[in-house]
Amino acid sequence: MSLISALQFLRLNEIPEAWVDAVWDLEFTKRIPLDDTIAGHLSVSGDKDFRTLYQCLLDHAAEQQDGTLQSIWSILGENHVSIKSLVAVLSFFVLAGKAKKASVQQRVSGLHAASLYLLLLGVQGSIAAKVFHEVLLDTCSDLTSHCWPQDSRKKRKKDGPKSSQADGKRSRPQWKDTPEMEVNEADDEEEEEEEDEEELHFSAQDLVKIRDAVVLLVQSLLRLLQTFSLKDRPQSADNCTQIFSKLLHFEPVTGEMTFANPHDVTQLRSVPEMAFCGLQVLCSSKHGDQKESLRRVFHQLLYIILMMNKGDRGKPSLLIPSQAVLSTRDQTIHFVCHLVNELKEIALPVLQILLQHICFQMVEKSDFRSHGAQAVGMLTSQMTSKDYACFIKWLFKFSNSSKMVCRLFSVDVVMVLLEQPERGPQECQDPELSCFLPHKFLIQNLLFARRVDESPSVQGHALACLAQCLELPSFNVTRAVHNLFSATGTQTVLEGEITEGSLSSHQTQKSYQTLLFKTVEITSADSFQCEAKENLAHLLRRIKDSKTHVRKSALQALVGLMKHSVIPLSLENLATLSERCRDPAVSVKKKAMQCVAELLAAKPDSSMVQKAWLQSVVSALVDPENSVRDKALEALDQVLLSHLKPYSASLHLDAGQRLTWDLLGLLCSECRNLSWYFSRAFTIWSKQNKFTEALIGNLISHTEADHAAGAWLLLSKVTASSIRVPHGKILDAWDTMIRSKNVTATTCCHILCVMGDIAEHLNKDTKDRIVADLMSWLKTFTLSLDVICAAVETLYQLGRSKEIKQTQAFLSLHCGELMSVCEAYLAGVLLRERGAQNLNEELMVKHLHTLGVASLHCPAKVSKRTVLLVESVLMIHSDKLAEGQEELPASLSQFKANSLPSRVRAHGVLTLGKLCLQHEELVKKYLPVFARELEVGTEVAVRNNLVVIMCDLSIRYTNRVDNYIPNISACLQDSEAVIRVHTLIMLTNLLQEEFVKWKGSLFFHFMVALVDPVPSVVSLCEYCLVQVLLKDNPEMFSQHFIECIFHFSDYNKHKSYNRFPQSEREKARFSLKGPQHREKRFRIYRFLLEHFTDTQRFNITVKINQTILACFADEELQLDADGAEVLSETFNILSLKEIKLQAMSAPIESTEGEEPEDENMATIVKAVLQVAQKKVVSQVQKKAFIENTVPLIISLKSLLEQKRSPVLRDLMAYLHVTMQDYRNEVKDLFSGDEQLAAELEFDLKTAEKESEISKQVDNCSLTREARIPPAQGSPVRSAALLPFIFATPQPPRPNTLAARLAHTDRRGSRSEQHVQSIALEGTVMHKGAVDARAISTPKGVNMNLTFGEGVSGIFSDQGTSLVSETRVLHLRSKEEQTPGLRQWNVQSPLRQRKKSSKD
């Protein structure tokens, strides 16, 4: 078909000339309606007509280019076809398809018309034929974004009808349908406009038609760019770049892209491939300066790499990182790498700036940071070593940015770069840059330096990444971390750093045995010992940080260092790890348990690690948090139960089985104190039916192995909840134990426990035989004390029956027999002349212990003679017993010393206490004796046992023991720490079970324990008070706070407080009065206030005003020496920061210097609520201050001035602290006392000026640029490193971090001279310097960078800058003296007033 015939369907000869002129006059910005008849004819134009015309034009253009056919423009002129009308009609279709309500046919026709226009524009001679119009070119090029359905981004109505063609909509590509996490205001306005429009629905066939038309349009645009230069049309080039960038999201691409530039665009399979091809064409020299073209392309690709949607207006919005978004991002990164490989030197400077903008525009979300860091790693792999070193140099400065997200992202980038092969210093010719190439610089100067960051988030992330470094398969990375913490006397250094390329493929394991065979140099590392200790001490401090995530990250770092033997498995480090399993935060507890499990998996043969794991996990079984208990149960199940297999002497145990039996062995020996916690696990497992016959059978098979002790331990826990237990093997083990002398006491106890559990399933003959064995065994008195208790308990289990009388008769017979034997022995020792001199101490203790244990089962057998015999162990009564008197002494004041050893007397006390448990008359008799002995006794073991006895008696005889609680609590100040600890534990249990109440001086005795000289006692006391007692009684601290002030000041003149009775001895022991104890008192006050709620803080302030300040103001309490001390103490307490409301003092979400990058709606709402809450609380607090406090303060000030009291200073100090919140309202608040108001204003102004002066002094001593500390052993010259050519300058800020690093990281300064610090004051550029840039960088403090706005200065290294001659750095020399401080001439308002009155 001829070209003219193909044009017939456009009816160009019928188009009015006036309409054509009007269209051209409006420059194709508005669609002008045609005559209805003509418009009707044009509307019936189909796809076939457009495609036919397109093919004719394409063929003619190709043949015209070859010179075989006449020019298209000549043919159109000869046939009187108006080119102006043709363009106008094509624009009619284009603008119709661009409309929001356009139908499918209008969209397809518009796309075809746009393709025809672009094809015409590419024909040679189009400019002369006046086909080109910039507006129409941009409209046709961007028509895809208007014609492709975008209704998924609209706000759908919930009750809107569903389309029957929904299935068809699912099949369309994902372009512009990517869900966004944030939508800017402009998008909101567009969506509100679209809500009123009728929603259009498209079938699968409709979408296929539109896509085919889109493909044709993109192919036409590619053909145009191959022949039509945009060199002089930068705006059109920008538009094309944006269009191609949008098309990258059009549809998913299957297979791998090659980015090859085909000769025929129809060979490209998908729209994104065409878009990448178009971007590559735009970077060719045909379309202008390639640097400028790359800048333009990289600017658009930046947001795809960042996974952002950059609209025409508003800030970029984040995309949800779906598979489609991630795939497009990966393809874009590979495309950038392809461009860099193709253009090489031209692209490298622009790549530097692209990397900088990726870093600067990164958001705080972890997944975006992770993907961004991976992108940086892939792009840096395309750099030469010199460019890479320049980027690392810039990254170091970037890591000192004032924005928290920048410092956080720098850590992510470092971790990705450490995974890459290390570049050797010899690869960079510039010696100033070569020091940035080793991984050691990244670890020590970028990663490890962040451990002292001002943001807890950055601190935690840096510590977590430090632990990950040790997992990397790099020798030099591992060595760098070792150097930070290694405290060895010498270090081995090879003749050069090991590079990854120097290792063969099979050398992948990290082991120092694989080091290259080179000369070894031994260097002294004494200078590193101190630094290594400092680094480890800092890490241990971070484990106790106030921020939860910092503690978790520090734990991960500590475990990583121990796993890889960087630091030793010392008791201190393991104890720190175990301690965090009892952290107040649940997440930290779980993290600590996970860390100790990792350490156990890495060091399964270390007994110290095994103990730490047991102490961490087993003790967590009683944690108040269910999730922590479940995690501990899961860990025990995996490590202990899951590895239980039948025992065979011919088979070796695997690693898991060995670990299981090692742990069980420790529970039987060194960790027996965990047995009670361990039993809790079996109580829970029994309800879950975990104990099968196979499990019990496996355990019994191990009773014959070397690790039989562990098997008996598990059996003792399991058999109590199991019905079917094979008795035969257990009875055989019993017989073996009775005959053997090599069975340990712990194993004996477990076997006895198992025998007691299966007793009810045994027949009478077997029971009688076992009872006989037990009695004969017990009568030998060769058993340990634990075995005696277990044996008597098993005896009870064997004699227990359904009839209580039968059980009592059995126990009276057998336990009574044991008691008779013990009494006979005691009488023989105590009544025999010189019996105590030849005393067998061990045998005496066992008889006393057996007597006490047996008496608990048969209290009727306890006679008065029995009591006197036990009492005689503690005092001399042998004459009465010899005469046969059985009457108890009428009165007894205290125990009297005799010749018996202290250990015997201590067990005698325990036995006497067991006798008292069953006889109330003995309790009445001996309680005063016990109390007196607590006061005057000198034997530690006796006093300790007396505390245990009296606390046990208080459970059964609560009312009788209640009067002696002050005597027990007085032991909180005992001279021995072990007694203080046991007293604290016992009293806490009694308070928790409510056998004891907070009466008298008990609470204040606990408070004194908070300032105990032994830190472990203080820690235990804090745990008991906060984690145990405060949870049961949240008002406990606030109820006693006022009385604490009077009690610790020893002030008893108040009518209500400090009126409870106290002995003089008790007062002297617990006194904290006087200036020498002031620090202790305020430690107590701070501890109490820290655990107040805001409501309690507010109420306690009001109560202090009413009960203390008001009493002194009304002179109910005299202002004598004691009164002045209490009033001074009160003002100091009111000045504490802990008494301020947290709602007023807590920061609003982000701290200073941390700007949240991704403020979603939830964060904004939370911040608004915090501000509103703070405002309301401030108003309430202000009202209370005006009504309650101000009148009292004015009255007290007048009173103190009259009496010339020194307390006036404390009052003014309190007002100075309080009025910081009301500094602009001083006159209004204190209108009743003008003099006081003037003094306060003067004090506040003076304090403000002093603060400003101190800040100026600090700022003068700090440099504006971060100092780059040289890496350990790296050849960094003693000169400040200048920013390189395309570096983005940092905003000026005082770098307090440099001071911290200078204090903690002196690794380079010990071996080299101090680095001279040069502060960059500014940069001067000549007028044309901006044009030489590849990508513009931001200016000033604002870091929201764009490629086309905010041009700033570019610094350059000497000899490498493209425009070095025109850039001048203004430096402040070291010799310049800082100007002197301004002399303040401040006079008091009162002095001025007095001076004026005199005049």
From TrEMBL:
Domain of life per record: Eukaryota
Keyword Cell division: yes
Domain annotation Condensin complex subunit 1 C-terminal: ranges: 942-1109
GO annotation, cellular component aspect: condensed chromosome, centromeric region; condensin complex; nucleus
Gene Ontology molecular function: histone binding
Alphabetical list of InterPro entries matching this protein: ARM-like, ARM-type_fold, CND1/NCAPD3, Cnd1_C, NCAPD3
Stretches for region Disordered: 148-200, 1375-1399
Coiled-coil intervals, chain numbering: none
Start-end of Acidic residues biased regions: 180-199
Composition skew (Basic and acidic residues), residue ranges: 167-179
Location within or outside the cell: Nucleus
Example GO BP: cell division
UniProt keywords, alphabetically: Cell cycle, Cell division, DNA condensation, Mitosis, Nucleus
Pfam families referenced in this protein's UniProt entry, alphabetically: Cnd1
Main location: nucleus
Described function: Regulatory subunit of the condensin-2 complex, a complex which establishes mitotic chromosome architecture and is involved in physical rigidity of the chromatid axis.
Subunit organization: Component of the condensin-2 complex.
Name used for this protein in its record: Condensin-2 complex subunit D3
